[in-house]
Design a protein that fits this description.
With about 120 residues, the chain is mainly alpha-helical. It is built from four helices and two strands, in the order E-H-H-H-H-E. About 35% of the residues lie in helices and about 5% in strands.
Length: about 120
């Protein structure tokens, strides 16, 4: 069993620059974990935050001339790669299974101000 030390989940989590060689400066927040599910064609903050997360994780690289906030083919392909590498069905749909995988990754890396620690 693992004990999860719960921190404040409402804080914003900055993932840093969108891509090292990009002019984009997007950041992701925890709202992607609790917001609406996303799929191709989605627009707005949720799509932008998902793109920021995928970019920070190295799955999405877009040219500086490409606008963020639209969940298109590049975002879907990047999400499928992320899902496949995290044992989530690689559908390109950002729903509960993918959100859970991201949350577990954040907890494992102490990105939420809280960490998973083994019971003592």
């Amino acid at each position: 069993m693992q004990k999860i030390t719960v921190g404040v989940f409402a804080i914003m989590l900055a993932f840093g620059a969108f891509a090292a060689n990009s002019a984009h400066a997007a950041t992701a927040s925890l709202s992607i974990l609790y917001g609406s599910d996303l799929q191709s064609g989605a627009t707005g903050n949720g799509a932008t935050e998902l793109q920021a997360f995928l970019g920070e994780q190295g799955y999405l690289n877009v040219a500086p001339t490409v606008s963020l906030g639209y969940f298109g083919g590049q975002t879907k392909a990047a999400l499928i790669q992320y899902q496949a590498s995290h044992n989530v069905p690689a559908t390109g749909y950002f729903g509960p299974l993918t959100k859970n995988a991201i949350q577990q990754e954040m907890l494992a890396h102490c990105w939420l101000g809280a960490c998973m620690t083994p019971n003592m």
